[in-house]
Amino acid sequence: MMMCKEATRLMSLKQDRRLTFQESISLRFHLTMCGACRQCDHQFSLLHHRAGKRFEAEFEEMPGGDGAGTGGSGRRE
Amino acid sequence: MTDEPSPKDDAALAASPTRMERLAAVRPRLLSFARLHLRDNALAEDAVQEALMAAIEKDASFAGRSGYETWVFGILKYKILDVMRFQKRQGRLQPLDDESDDDAIDRQFQENGRWQDHARPASWGDPDQVFENEHFWQVFDACMITLPDNTARVFSLRELMGLSTEEICRELDIRENNCWVILHRARLKLRACLQKGWLKEETAR
């Protein structure tokens, strides 16, 4: 059976590429049984989604000098 | 010939002071991003300077699809990549050696592959509150500094600059597998450091 260390490898990998069916199943199986790894999985995802957004969000929120429609309201995505 | 500026010049002159003020206002944030990525004050200053110059020169090409500051930030990301490519050509990027710092990872796990008690992941609290907290990001920045240069570079390219691992491999001339190994290591270390720093500060309050 897969252990936590190997599970973290898949949790990380999953942020960078699609897991194979086999990888995905073994990771999910491990996560159902391991609370600490569920926490780790959640935190890797949070880092992936928020670390870059932190700066994006800051620049979007900067008060525009002229307020002439070029300010922080223009959202990308 | 006349001394009077044409209406077009007039408009350009009227627009620029506001833009200049906005560039001055955004500069510190650009600098902290560049520092986080390049880990070198002088290089970070150069990249930001280049980005600001480009923003002034290309002012007319700002299409208004995003906010002005976001647009300038986009320019900075390109400039940072340029700096990195230059460093690489000069042979100034340390080679990526992947075996050097496995100890720090091994210390998080028992021999049988389970978490060590001291390293076991614990909740950081409500994500929406955590990520709004300036303090959390101060801990994050401090933790980034503790990562080895190579590890931090790959992590930053992936998570701060938003490159795919394929693009990172192309930039750094490494195999994708190598890239995944480095990212795994970076995430584990960063997570452990964040937990230590952040939860300690939380309980200290």
Folded structure, characterized:
- The complex is a heterodimer of chains A (77) and B (205).
- With 77 residues, chain A is mainly alpha-helical.
- Chain A has helices spanning 4-13, 21-33, 35-61.
- Chain A has one domain (4-58).
- The radius of gyration of chain A is 19 Å and the shape is elongated.
- Mean pLDDT of chain A is 83; it is low at 65-77.
- Chain B is mainly alpha-helical and 205 residues long.
- Chain B has 2 domains: 7-89, Rna Polymerase Sigma Factor, Chain: A (Orthogonal Bundle), CATH 1.10.1740; 102-204, Orthogonal Bundle (Arc Repressor Mutant, subunit A).
- In chain B, α2 packs across α3 (68-89) and α6 (134-146) crosses α9 (176-204).
- The A-B interface holds A 3-6, 8-9, 12-13, 15-17, 36-37, 39-40, 43-44, 46-48, 50-52, 54-56, 58-60, 62, 64-66, 69-76 and B 18-19, 21-22, 25-26, 29, 33, 62, 64-70, 72-73, 108-109, 112-115, 120-124, 127, 131, 137, 140, 158-162, 164-165, 179-180, 183-184, 187-188, 190-191, 194.
- Chain B: Residues 140-190 form the RNA polymerase sigma factor 70 region 4 type domain.
- Chain B: Residues 25-89 form the RNA polymerase sigma-70 region domain.
Average pLDDT rating of chain A: 83
Cα shape of chain B: globular
Helix content estimate of chain B: over 70%
Number of domains of chain A: 1
Give the helix/strand class of chain A. mainly alpha
Main sheet: strands, sense, barrel of chain B: none
Order of helices and strands of chain A: HHH
Number of helices of chain B: 9
Major sheet attributes of chain A:
none
